[in-house]
Amino acid sequence: MADVVWVLKAATGHGERTHGMGLWYGIYDIRSGQMQGTDGKVQKEFCTLLNSIIYGVPRRRTQRRLIHLSLHPGVVTEYRPQLLRASRNLLNRFLDFEDEHVITNIRHMAGETILSVAYGIEVKPRDDPYIAISEENVKAVTAAAIPGTYLVDSLPFLKYIPSWFPGAEWKRKAKEWKESLIVMINSPFESVKRDIMTGCVLPSFTSKGLQKIQEGKKDVAYTEEIIRNVAAAMYSAGSDTTVSTISSCMLGLLDHPEALEKAQAEIDAMIKPGHLPDFEDEPSLPYITAIVKESLRWMVALPISIPHYLEVEDEYQGYRIPAGSIIIPNAWAMLQDEKEYPDPSVFNPDRFMKDGKLNKDIRDPAHACWGFGRRY
To answer: Which keywords annotate this record (predicted)?
Structure first.
């Protein structure tokens, strides 16, 4: 099995690797934060703003609490109509826009889903400006979040050179990304505020939060700044991973038509003719659920999960983790563990089935595929 955790020591520059999966779960608590305080100069230049929004500095607890209040399992069911509409629009897009790449259609569906949930925005079938600006920022966040991508991360003195100087491309990119990020944060948020004033607003995370402010809700989580930042973070957190997972699922099914045949047979047997599956049908579709689990495991969207920075020194089962260390989990190694998942490189939804039902003895890929640490 490959190493499942890397610990990069900020003070010495040396690294340690460990097979101890328990180490990762044990140290990942309130003592760590997402990349805050690292020496990533591009991240910092791009983002005092980005840290505040995506990584929650310094308001992370308030933002996490608002996410929990608005998106916990008991509330998220309210957004099922948007999810169903987006998924069924995707099926229509496959028929109506045959000239477009499959991934383009999936990406549009992901953007439609998140923009609808976060802002109540109904996107255009093609060339939607909100999806376009969001895609630009997802690419920027992805590039900026990788430690060592730019030379300045290794040679910190380069942060002092002017932006026009040769080799300072990172500074120019960071400025460009920051301007684009500000547009992504403010544009849809201001659109919701205008819709509320005209009385034409659709239900969404943002509209519900702003309405609570109007109702005089006494809670520090319900401020325009916090609501705006959390809504912007939703897209950055969910769009690319959604596209990746659905694409992997389609690839796996095309490469293993026997699994596709089983899925179709289950749907034909359990769903009324002329109807599409709904959330209420999930308990009667165990093989479809197994396909979802295998898609999350087989080609995990974030094989190397988001690095986290240890704020204080810690110790777990004999491992001393110095303060200032960056901890990087290897989710791919966890989900390709032959002890947990025999023949891990094979797309095989049946590994999660037993006697026609979901096998609860097989570890759910959700333990690693969604990342680590507290969500709220």
So the answer is: Heme, Iron, Metal-binding, Monooxygenase, Oxidoreductase
Q: What is the pTM of this model?
A: 0.77
CB neighbour burial string for 327-347, b if at least 16 within 10 angstroms, e if fewer: bbbbbbbbbbbeebbeebeeb
Question: Which residues have a Cβ under 8 Å from the Cβ of 188 and sit 6 or more positions away?
Answer: 115, 118, 119, 121, 130, 206, 231
Would the pLDDT of 254 be above 50?
yes
Residue 326's Cβ-count burial label (10 Å; 0-12, 13-18, 19+) is buried
CA 193 to chain centre: 26
Which of 223, 234, 240, 278 lies closest to 77, judged by CA? 278
Residue 127, Cβ neighbours under 10 Å: how many?
Answer: 9
Are residues 363 and 49 in contact, defined by beta-carbon separation less than 8 angstroms?
no
The DSSP secondary-structure symbol of 53 reads: I
